[in-house]
């Protein structure tokens, strides 16, 4: 038997490809983002150190302020809805009824579909001549089509609804995994004592998955702050009327391209994104530790 | 079921309601994509089923935009992502879980640390790196950064760590080296997690939008999602065509997930997937 992989460098041979990717595509870009944020790097050259110029520009950037406002609204709406609805859905699909695998799989389908696909489907439903406006007009609820895709606030609301619709299955599966650990005997004992479904949900299910709810709310906050595809596709890349429906990531993408691009400023915006995402994450982790 | 049929009827009613809300929009898009040009799709309440079913819209999409080359481009990127992750993440995961070496803790800590950085934060400097390698506007440039995802390294490490130590110890006494232990003991015991990594590498690469949008400038190199967005601008006057293009992007993923869902939900029930 040949013993080629016996030496002390063997573990490094196994780890080598992963290590290269860790350094080149994870650690270096993280470091370089900070460096680039203080330069005037352009898509076509440039790259001189410009001190705090990008920071000053960011602090006076009305578009960035609007994008951050949109992000906060996005988060405030998504957080309660996506923390609670998927939990109810998980409770619904938890019981192993005949055909339940079909329902679970189908409910997860919007998650595996591309955000572009989902946004195009909803664009067709929400446009002036689309099904939702048509149905509402037929019912007589509205006389004129509602401008879901062209009004500054309705467009934001449409994108939020889309994020919620697409995200339900994802968080449902996380909750489903956690519900497996909630002890069944507790439910049965409570049922015998005459506790109704609502009561059991509040006093047994919710406390049992409390940590998972916290984890889910962190994931929701961070992904709400990172939103891109929904707003980009629903607004056809324009960011809505007057660019008022941009997210921070849309601004980053906008500055990454073409003759008007500015990679240095885009990197400063990336730092802003990091600061706002790391905030809720640390806060919630701390809450979690205190509660435990 | 102990006679709780009333409860089960309610459950099925709710399940069907959610099913309609989930499948409805997809079904509506599919139906629109099959409607003939003579059908009025803009009345207040259009017919749910196509009155003049036709595949003509699919043919017209393929005539107007290079949808086949978009599909080929997406497949190339997805194949590179799947291969890279299946090989690279598996090897690295094995090293972190089962081999002892100096610096292992540091390596593990750094790998874990990357998870707090959302990908969007480093996307600009990622682009600068890829451009510096001369890979801007290439499919290799799209695939390369995600070809070994740190999350997948950690998932594979978890799977390898669950193998009992005694199995390795017995093999060491038999004189098996690290590679032989990896092939004979490691790999056969992580098939479940490996399939999860493969499935989600494929889906992630196929669905990705922002990164290829930044890297690619030449429309001939567009992946399907970027091409689709481009299509929606070009054909906004005819939703039938957009619907057909959307279904071309969606159906392969639906089939892949439909076939692979067993592995996925088995993993969920074993508690392997925690987000």
Automatic annotation (TrEMBL), chain A:
Keyword Transport attached: yes
Top-rank lineage group of the source organism: Bacteria
BP term (GO), one: transmembrane transport
Annotated membrane topology: Multi-pass membrane protein
GO annotation, cellular component aspect: plasma membrane
Keywords: Cell membrane, Membrane, Sugar transport, Transmembrane, Transmembrane helix, Transport
Residues that span the membrane, as ranges: 12-31, 72-93, 105-125, 153-176, 209-228, 263-285
All residue ranges annotated as the ABC transmembrane type-1 domain in the record: 68-284
Pfam families, alphabetized: BPD_transp_1
Subcellular compartments: Cell membrane
Protein family (similarity comment): Belongs to the binding-protein-dependent transport system permease family.
Protein name: Multiple sugar transport system permease protein
Species the sequence originates in: Nonomuraea endophytica
From TrEMBL, chain B:
Pfam families: BPD_transp_1
InterPro entries per UniProt: MetI-like, MetI-like_sf
Keywords: Cell membrane, Membrane, Sugar transport, Transmembrane, Transmembrane helix, Transport
Subcellular location: Cell membrane
Keyword Disulfide bond listed: no
Domain (ABC transmembrane type-1): residue spans on this chain: 71-260
Membrane topology: Multi-pass membrane protein
Entry's Gene Ontology BP terms: transmembrane transport
Gene3D superfamilies found in the cross-reference section: MetI-like
Segments crossing the lipid bilayer: 12-30, 70-94, 106-128, 134-155, 194-214, 241-260
UniProt feature coiled coil, ranges: none
Primary location recorded for the protein, binned into one broad class: membrane
UniProt entry tagged with the keyword Membrane: yes
GO CC field: plasma membrane
Family: Belongs to the binding-protein-dependent transport system permease family.
Annotated protein name in UniProt: Multiple sugar transport system permease protein
Organism field: Nonomuraea endophytica
């Amino acid at each position: 038997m040949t013993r080629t992989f016996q030496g002390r460098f063997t573990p490094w041979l196994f780890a080598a490809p992963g290590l290269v990717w860790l350094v080149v595509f994870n650690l270096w870009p993280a470091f370089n983002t900070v460096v680039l944020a203080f330069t005037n790097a352009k898509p076509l050259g440039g790259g001189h150190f410009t001190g705090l110029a990008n920071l000053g520009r960011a602090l006076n950037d009305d578009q960035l302020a609007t994008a951050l406002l949109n992000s906060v609204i996005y988060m405030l709406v998504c957080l309660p809805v996506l923390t609670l609805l998927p939990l109810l859905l998980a409770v619904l699909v938890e019981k192993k009824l005949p055909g339940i695998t079909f329902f679970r799989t189908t409910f997860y389908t919007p998650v595996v579909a591309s955000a572009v696909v989902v946004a195009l489907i909803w664009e067709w439903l929400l446009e002036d001549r689309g099904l939702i406006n048509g149905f509402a007009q037929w019912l007589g609820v509205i006389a004129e089509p509602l401008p879901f895709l062209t009004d500054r606030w309705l467009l934001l609301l449409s994108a939020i609804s889309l994020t919620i619709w697409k995200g339900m299955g994802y968080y449902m599966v996380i909750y489903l995994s956690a519900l497996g650990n909630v002890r069944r005997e507790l439910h049965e004992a409570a049922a015998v004592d005459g506790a109704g479904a609502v009561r059991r949900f509040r006093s047994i299910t919710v406390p049992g998955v409390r940590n998972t709810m916290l984890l889910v709310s962190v994931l929701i906050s961070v992904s709400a702050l990172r939103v891109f595809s929904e707003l980009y596709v629903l607004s056809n890349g324009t960011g809505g009327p007057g660019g008022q429906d941009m997210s921070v990531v849309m601004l980053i993408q906008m500055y990454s391209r073409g003759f008007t691009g500015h990679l240095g400023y885009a990197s400063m915006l990336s730092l802003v994104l990091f600061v706002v995402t790391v905030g809720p994450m640390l806060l919630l982790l701390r809450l979690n530790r205190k509660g435990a | 079921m102990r006679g709780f049929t009333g409860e089960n009827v309610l459950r099925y009613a709710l399940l069907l309601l959610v099913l309609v809300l989930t499948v409805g929009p997809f079904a509506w898009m599919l139906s629109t994509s099959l409607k003939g040009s003579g059908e009025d799709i803009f009345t207040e309440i259009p017919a749910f089923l196509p009155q003049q079913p036709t595949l003509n819209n699919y043919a017209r999409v393929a005539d107007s935009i290079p949808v086949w080359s978009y599909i080929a481009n997406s497949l190339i990127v997805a194949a590179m992502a799947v291969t890279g992750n299946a090989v690279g993440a598996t090897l690295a995961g094995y090293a972190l879980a089962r081999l002892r070496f100096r610096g292992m803790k540091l390596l593990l800590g750094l790998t874990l640390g990357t998870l707090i950085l959302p990908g969007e934060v480093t996307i600009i400097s990622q682009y600068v790196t890829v451009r510096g390698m001369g890979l801007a506007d290439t499919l290799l440039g799209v695939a390369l950064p995600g070809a070994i995802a740190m999350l997948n390294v950690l998932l594979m490490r978890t799977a390898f760590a669950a193998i009992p130590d005694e199995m390795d110890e017995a093999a060491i006494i038999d004189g098996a080296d690290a590679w032989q232990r990896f092939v004979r003991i490691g790999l056969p015991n992580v098939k479940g997690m490996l399939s999860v990594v493969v499935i989600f590498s494929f889906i992630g690469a196929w669905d990705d939008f922002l990164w290829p949008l930044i890297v690619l400038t030449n429309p001939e190199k567009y992946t399907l999602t970027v091409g689709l967005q481009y299509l929606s601008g070009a054909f906004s006057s005819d939703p039938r065509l957009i619907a057909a293009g959307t279904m071309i992007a969606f159906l392969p993923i639906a089939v892949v997930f439909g076939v692979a869902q067993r592995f996925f939900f088995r993993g969920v029930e074993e508690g392997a997937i925690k987000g």
